[in-house]
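Office hours follow-up: a student asked to see two folded examples consecutively, so here they are.
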Amino acid sequence: VQLVESGGGAVQTGGSLRLTCTAVGLTFEGGNQGWYRETPGNEFELVSSIAPDGSRWYADSVQGRFTISRDDAKNTPYLQLNSLKSEDTAMYYCTKDDAWWLPYVWGQGTQVTVS
């Protein structure tokens, strides 16, 4: 069972990235899914989450700039990052969450650096 994030990189302020979470040995279908990030200052926060019915939640800091989505046919969640700011610099993690929105499978992370 494994999650592998990709799509991170170094961009300038105002740029965009799309993060992808590839699942190995598990399915997101019918389950909750989230994206977390850890900043260079070791602040850890939930960025966004999505339920099986498509309902979404966003942290205030990314509302209007980030978009979470999932393609159940491909078993792949995504996080679109637009209008990036320096404070978005962090390691981003994909998670599979239980029914109470507690993550129980984590990816290894993908680095996003905005300068």
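And the second, which I mentioned at the end of office hours:
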Amino acid sequence: VQLVESGGDLVQPGGSLRLSCAASGFDFSLNTMNWVRQVPGKGPEWVSEINGGGDITAYANSVKGRFTISRDNAKDTLYLHINNLQAEDTAVYYCVWGLAYWGQGTQVTVSS
């Protein structure tokens, strides 16, 4: 199993990003996927979830309305579209399958 995130960057408050996660080694289209973020020194925070078919999603209250999770099963890729970034969104964002499989993370930093 391999999960490789990309797309993190330094952005100004109010900016947007699209994070990607390329998955391999398992049947991606059959599995629910999650995004989790973590600030150094703090515990992980669940952000969003999407089912295998891509038609059922869920979001943490802290990101609802600003984040959109999606997937392209033909490309085995998970996405997280982030709008109106705020300083409190600064974290390492991880793509997660189940509880055991995490990518290496991609850093999102929001600062003026």
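Two things to take away from it. The chain has a mean pLDDT of 97. The two ends are 37 Å apart (CA to CA).
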